[in-house]
Design brief:
The complex is a heterodimer.
Chain A (H helix, E strand, L loop, with lengths): L1 H16 L7 H11 L1 H4 L38 H10 L15 H12 L22 H13 L3 H4 L38 H10 L10 H5 L5 H13 L11 E6 L19 E4 L1 E2 L14 E8 L3 E9 L10 H11 L45 E7 L20 E7 L6 E5 L5 E3 L7 E6 L3 E9 L16 E9 L11 E2 L3 E5 L6 H34 L2
Chain B lengths: L1 H4 L2 H26 L9 H19 L3 H16 L4 H23 L19 E4 L2 E4 L13 H15 L1 H4 L31 H10 L24 H15 L15
Antiparallel strand pairs in B: 1-2
Helix pairs in contact in B: 2-3, 6-9, 8-9
Classes of the chains: A alpha+beta, B mainly alpha.
Chain lengths: ~550, ~260
């Protein structure tokens, strides 16, 4: 009894001795060093060892510019704002959410610690008073669309809101790193969250440190009403799917009668399921690429028993090559440039700094007067659909990054600067050789406001033979995808890649699919009747015998 | 109530129902309550288990003559008793329909990906060549553990990890880096007790040096995005990043003498 009392007393003393909020910094420091410094740097300057592999770069806390706030533009965020980003992370960037790893008190301690990096936090945050969302309906969304035009969001975000506006190629953040206006069709990648309310708040507060402005001034000047800003947010939200898309394991090619659509904008595509395939940077083989411009491709497939048509839709801010984007290309190549030489044989002796270069190139050097900016190569956009050369019988297939010398892959390879897609063999990443001779592969592409839409069609049988895969109905055929945006400096091993998926060509449903179950049911019924009849006959006989 | 429960037919049904629930859901959901990872039982395995239980139940109900008769009685009644006519008819209709439906599910064309059975920790080779140097894996220890200051090695490993591994394995070492969603199989989750705590540092060295492509066939080397780090890192950097992996997660490596590891 007394022991328990003593224990309680000790606990109380310990609690009382716990540091008050303002003195939590040292506790935060240890956690920061362990979990945050690798990206944000020990001094909070956003220059940790990982920084040069990321765009957007990790935040430099000494500048005290934060994107996700509930405070007016230029003001520091509230503690709750900082906790919110630490909890939920910043989608579409390398910044993860921390609820799984760190306790609530640890996360609070980090908030306090981050504030020690800048004296700006001596000022009080200027919290914006947000209104409540008006009802959402077709008229509201239409008003939002008009307001989007009126406020000239399209200058950066583009007419179709895919982040491809006329000034998109010249955007840079306050530290002079190139920055892409958000693709508003992908709300699951918004830094501050994708809900109507999140978007409205970003419109009111802006994303400090980026060109994305706050529209509070416009509100004050009565250029736009608060309700209209809500409508813009509702409109922007309506551009993305209801739920973030998930990739399927199997892309289904439906069997259709007659002619297949060859044009990317044929309405016949509406009947085909859309599969979302995420693409990520090629960070496996030298030279690596950490900042791919294409983050996903939407794949549809149809076949008619003779031909297979695949429609590929991916967002790309530029139709490359495009001289308006060469400055962007130069800058991205400079700050994200491959961390190793393409010719690099194993960098045997270089220890210490192999892997990645340590310090990010100083953005200020960009303005160095040292003469002409180096010309960038004019690179086209490109896309590759990868198959094995034969449908594998077991599990084994070619290496997912375009096979190797022993087990090559078969590609449909399209370039924006070539007249048509070609069939090719690849023996390792970017080691692509077109298959000689006449080809039955057909392609048609359109570029439309920040989006490529490409249809590739080929007969199921492969008349040319060689490395060409014969497509078969009713089997899961391995398939993978690669995309390159020339204006982002992408070609060769520098691009976006996917894992192996499967495409499945529906078979005409065989009659046995219906007859077998009916036969089973009939047999079972017959057997049941037999059992009952037998049992009843026995019962009668037994009864008459007086068992 | 009690008498009903002691009826062999009811007992048999109960046993079958409880067994089904246990196999179907219990195996997947009960171990996690105790902090052990688990997964649902595949259908074919479930069928096998249920058949075993059914045989057991049959043996039980037929063990004594009395019990066997009591067990058969309700079946017999449904088959012959005039008062059970409706039951009989209902069963004669629903059972065949069910059989037909199950057959349909079996024969209809399925659009599933072929199963991808992958051995996560296949046997390592006995020796590897690392940049021209032959290394014997059995008994190989992390040389940095006996040399210099451990904290320095952790910091060196931290640099290597953040420059090269975060995009896939994540800064939380949980396999959820910002590029992880593009790969299948997913990058290893080092916070899971099924990964590095089960492994010796020499095994981890082999995996990092040779990457996914260095796996034997049962490891599906053609699917793994794990790079072969011998192309990027020095031997020392790899030993350092291994020290960092264990330090940051709090696991200990499996050792050669005790074959034990894992304690956090």
């Amino acid at each position: 009894m007394s022991a328990r009392l003593a224990g309680t007393a000790a606990l109380l003393v310990a609690l009382a001795a716990a540091p008050a909020a303002g003195q939590q910094a040292p506790a935060g420091k240890a956690i920061y060093e362990k979990w945050c410094a690798g990206c944000h740097g020990s001094d909070g300057k956003g220059d940790g060892p990982a920084a040069s592999t990321m765009l957007p770069r990790p935040r430099d806390f000494t500048r005290a510019l934060f994107k996700v706030r509930t405070t007016s533009s230029g003001s520091v965020p509230t503690d709750a704002d900082l906790r919110h980003v630490i909890d939920d992370g910043m989608p579409g960037s390398a910044m993860p959410g921390w609820t799984d790893v760190l306790s609530e008190s640890d996360r609070d301690a980090l908030v306090q610690y981050i504030k020690t990096f800048s004296t700006a936090f001596q000022q009080k945050p200027d919290v914006v008073a947000f209104s409540k969302a008006p009802p959402e309906n077709a008229a509201a969304i239409e008003d939002g669309r008009r307001t989007y035009e009126k406020l000239e969001c399209f200058k950066c975000h583009g007419r179709a809101a895919r982040g491809d506006g006329p000034s998109a190629s010249t955007q840079e953040d306050d530290s002079h790193f190139p920055i892409r206006p958000a693709n508003l069709e992908e709300n699951w990648r918004f830094r501050g969250g994708g809900s109507v309310e999140d978007i409205y708040r970003r419109l009111r507060t802006g994303l400090d440190g980026t060109p994305m402005p706050s529209f509070n001034d416009m509100l004050a000047a009565k250029v736009v009403t608060d309700e209209q800003l809500w409508h813009v947010a509702q409109y922007v939200r309506s551009l993305s799917p209801k739920e973030p898309p998930e990739p399927p394991e199997v892309i289904r090619a439906r069997l259709v009668e007659g002619r297949l659509p060859t044009s990317p904008d044929d309405s016949a595509w509406n009947v085909a399921e859309r599969a979302y395939i995420p693409l990520v940077g090629q960070v496996i083989i030298k030279p690596r690429w950490f900042s791919p411009a294409v983050d996903a491709v939407w794949v549809q497939a149809l076949h008619n028993g003779r031909d297979l048509a695949i429609r590929l839709v991916w967002d790309d801010r530029s139709r490359s090559p495009d001289p308006r984007w060469s400055e962007w290309q130069r800058r991205v190549t400079e700050v994200m440039g491959p961390k190793e030489d393409s010719a690099a044989a194993p960098a045997a002796a270089t220890s210490g700094t192999s892997g990645s270069d340590a310090a990010p190139p100083a953005p200020a050097d960009r303005a160095s007067p040292a003469g002409a900016t180096p010309a960038v190569p004019a690179l086209g956009d490109a896309f590759a659909v990868q198959f094995p050369r034969e449908i594998p019988q077991g599990m084994e297939r070619p290496y997912f990054l375009m096979g190797d010398a022993r087990n090559p892959v078969y590609l449909w390879y399209w370039r924006s600067d070539a007249p048509a897609a070609v069939e090719a063999t690849a023996r390792g990443l970017a080691n692509i050789t077109p298959i000689p001779g006449p080809s039955t592969l057909r392609s048609q592409a359109v570029f439309d406001r920040g989006q490529w839409r490409l249809v590739l069609t080929r007969p199921l049988a492969a008349p040319g033979g060689g490395d060409r895969l014969t497509l078969v109905q009713g089997e899961a055929i391995p398939i993978a995808f690669f995309a390159w945006d020339g204006s982002n400096g992408e070609s060769g091993t520098k691009g976006a890649v996917s894992a192996w998926y499967h495409v499945y060509l529906d078979e005409p449903t065989p009659k046995t699919v219906y007859t077998t179950p009916i036969a089973t049911a009939a047999l079972t019924a017959g057997f049941g009747i037999l059992v009952v009849a037998r049992a009843q006959r026995r019962e009668k006989q037994g009864g008459s015998k007086g068992d | 109530m009690k008498s009903r429960l002691s009826h062999p037919f009811v007992q048999a049904l109960l046993i079958l129902a409880v067994a089904y629930l246990l196999f179907r859901f219990g195996i997947a959901y009960i171990p996690p309550l105790l902090g052990v990872k688990s997964a649902p039982v595949p259908h074919t395995v479930l069928l096998q288990y249920m058949l075993t239980v059914a045989v057991g139940v049959l043996l039980y109900v037929s063990a004594t003559e009395d019990r066997w008769r009591a067990f058969k009685a309700p079946i017999q009644r449904v088959l012959v008793d005039p008062s059970q006519r409706l039951y009989r008819l209902a069963l004669l209709v629903t059972v065949p329909l069910l059989a037909g439906f199950i057959t349909y599910r079996q024969v209809r064309p399925s659009v599933e990906a072929p199963p991808n059975l992958r051995s996560i920790h296949p046997a390592p080779p006995s020796t590897i060549t690392f940049r021209g140097k032959t290394m014997t894996l059995a008994g190989l220890e992390n040389p940095l553990r006996k040399e210099g200051n451990l904290r320095d090695h952790v910091e060196e490993g931290r640099r290597v990890y953040y420059q090269n591994c975060v995009a896939c394995h994540g800064d939380q070492l949980n396999g959820k880096g910002h590029f992880a969603h593009g790969f299948n199989p997913p990058p290893a989750d080092f916070t899971d007790n099924g990964t590095i705590p089960q492994l010796t540092e020499s095994f981890v060295f082999w995996r990092i040096a040779k990457g996914g492509r260095g796996l034997p066939k049962e490891g599906t080397p053609w699917n793994s995005a794990m790079p072969a780090w011998e192309d990027f890192l020095t031997e020392r950097e790899i030993w350092a990043v291994i020290i960092f992996l264990y330090d940051q997660t709090g696991w200990t490596p499996r050792t050669w003498d005790t074959a034990e590891g894992g304690a956090r």
